[in-house]
Amino acid sequence: MSDKGIILLIFGLYLLLMVGIGFIFYRKSMSSSTYMLGGRSLNPWVTAFSAQASDMSGWLLTGLPGLCCLGIAAGSVAGIKESIFTAIGLFIGTAANWIFVAKRLRVYTEVASNSITVPSFFANRFDDKKGILQAISGVVILFFFTFYAASMFSAGAKMFETIFGLDYHLALLIGASIIVLYTLLGGFLAVSWTDLIQGLIMFFALIIVPIFVMRGFSDADFSAMGEIGNAISNLLPQQGEAFTWITIATALSWGLGYFGMPHVLVRFMATKNKKTIKPAAIIALVWVAITMACAILIGIVGRVAVGDGLTDATSETVFMQLVMNSFGPIVAGLLLSAILAAIMSTADSQLLVASSSFAEDIYKKHLRKNATDKEVLFVSRMTIIAVSAVAILLALDPESKIFELVKYAWGGFGASFGPLVIFSLYSKKIKFSGAVASIVTGAVTTIVWRYGLSHLGGIFLIYELIPGFILSSAALWIGSLCDKRPISDKMATDYDNFKIALKDKSDDNKIEDDQNSDCDVESDNEQMMSADINANN
């Protein structure tokens, strides 16, 4: 068997394992709530790896190392500096999200009518009986996740194209079909448990590859790495360098995006209880710190090992080229499956959240209020197919940059949902009008800034997430101040009960004991939460 045949066999076995997990969880996903949120049953390890593997996506092994390799011909280190600041911003954002959002969101979503999607939480939090917030949020999620999914499909296509020499468009269809298949089968539980496996594969692959490649370096290679190290010893902009304060602000601002990422937030909502958050946070932060550092190291090692063999057009394949040039087919197949793991762990999460938002927050809330649970589940699965079809169309261009597609979707979510999520968890004064204004302002600013104002150059080259987040926050407070209607009794009661439940330690074991139920878990948890709150009152 040829080397490519062996790699393909390993890929096939890996994919069979992922699809097998989908079949295992198929019977456990017969209700829409279990399909969308897994019955709030995730343990710390699954929570941590699922959140971070779905978050980092294929760009961790393609886009981020590729960014380090940009400007090889000119000997520039601007790409490496940008990637370092991006990693710093992402780590800070990850930590802040786990510390300031995770626990509060887990508790509040259960208190607020046991919300199972981010849009339904917004609607329940602001007592939106007409479902306006759900509809607007659902549309935003569908729009930006389609671009996000397109970036993952593109990453998968480039991987199959680079490794097996397949036509890009054929590779695109193959990769997308695999992801759609097991997402359709297993729902949230399948996605979360496969994320655990995929996160582990990504972790070890990112560590092994740069260490092994450097073992074969000559003194000249290490000298070249030393020169790169000296060039980036001062990370601040230098005179005559294509690296500016706008670049630094843009890179660091990636951390703001975390507060509005639906596919990350839903992992917090799905944990067993609030005690799960702390150990999950520790696992997640260790994983993030090590994997991003290794991804940057791969970019630097790739510049030395591959050299002029990388161009701006092929920089995102640096990890693949290092693996194929340095390892035998069996090990290469195992390591390259990390890219497939990274792509699948994000794409499946995006498809599931997008389909859940449409089925639960648009279809059931506005189009078919009397829809049965089975019907909602069917619509959710059909939405996965529809979103995937549009994402494939967006990814048809083989020249599309994975990093740029992810950047656009990331900014859109961060600006649209980030301020609302934060302030909803910390302030009782936020009102419905402010919430609507915040989401709309964030989404519109992101689109207008990227496709209009950024072409003006200068200060407008800054990442659209920054002005979007600022204007969205301003709209949230201005809209709330202008809304003269008093806070409803339900909003006030839910917020007070949320504060009580947040401090209450007696409910954790009770909730955890109830996780064995597949279909009744939501109602049981809600009854126990209500009992605990009444007891405290």
Structure, explained:
The structure is a single chain. The chain has 537 residues and is mainly alpha-helical. It has a single domain (3-232, 245-399), classed as Sodium/glucose cotransporter (Up-down Bundle), CATH 1.20.1730. Helix content is 75%, strand content 0%. The protein has helices at 3-26, 32-37, 44-56, 63-69, 78-111, 118-125, 132-164, 168-215, 219-231, 245-252, 262-269, 277-305, 318-326, 329-367, 373-394, 402-426, 432-451, 465-482, 489-503, 507-513, 521-536. Helix 3 crosses helix 8, helix 7 packs across helix 15 and helix 8 crosses helix 15.
SSE blueprint:
Elements: H1 3-26, H2 32-37, H3 44-56, H4 63-69, H5 78-111, H6 118-125, H7 132-164, H8 168-215, H9 219-231, H10 245-252, H11 262-269, H12 277-305, H13 318-326, H14 329-367, H15 373-394, H16 402-426, H17 432-451, H18 465-482, H19 489-503, H20 507-513, H21 521-536
Helix pairs in contact: 1-8, 1-14, 3-8, 3-11, 3-12, 3-14, 4-5, 4-12, 5-10, 5-12, 5-19, 6-7, 7-8, 7-14, 7-15, 7-16, 7-17, 8-12, 8-13, 8-14, 8-15, 9-12, 12-13, 13-14, 14-15, 16-17, 16-18, 17-18
Query: So what's the overall shape?
Result: globular
Question: How many strands in all?
Answer: 0
Average of the residue pLDDT scores: 81
First-to-last CA distance: 71 Å
Number of domains: 1
Write down the CATH class: Mainly Alpha
Query: H/E series, N to C?
Result: HHHHHHHHHHHHHHHHHHHHH
CATH topology: Sodium/glucose cotransporter
The CATH architecture category equals Up-down Bundle
Q: Nearest-angstrom radius of gyration?
A: 23 Å
CATH superfamily: Sodium/glucose cotransporter
Largest sheet: none
Helicity, as a percent range:
over 70%
